[in-house]
Amino acid sequence: MVLYMRQNWNDPRLKFTDYNHTVTVDVSLLENLWFPDLYFPSEKKAETHDITTDNKLLRLSPNGDILYSVRLSLLMSCPMKFHQFPMDNQTCTFQLESCK
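Below the sequence we write its predicted structure tokens.
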């Protein structure tokens, strides 16, 4: 599956008053910021997209709100029950968790 994972959080240390608009900044800034450490427990393979550039976005708001968006391709496991095959119905769910 291909999805855009968008995360929002607030870091009051990043408040600014000189400019009253949301600003888009280079995602390399994430190396210096705290951000949620999320993962998909049932993920078998995950890739970020980088054609023609990294498919990532980082925006900062004057009040310290942060928006981080990344495009992901995920291969997920999905346990299935085939006891009613071929008349079965399968539902695959996935969770998003944090290490901390």
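The radius of gyration is 18 Å.
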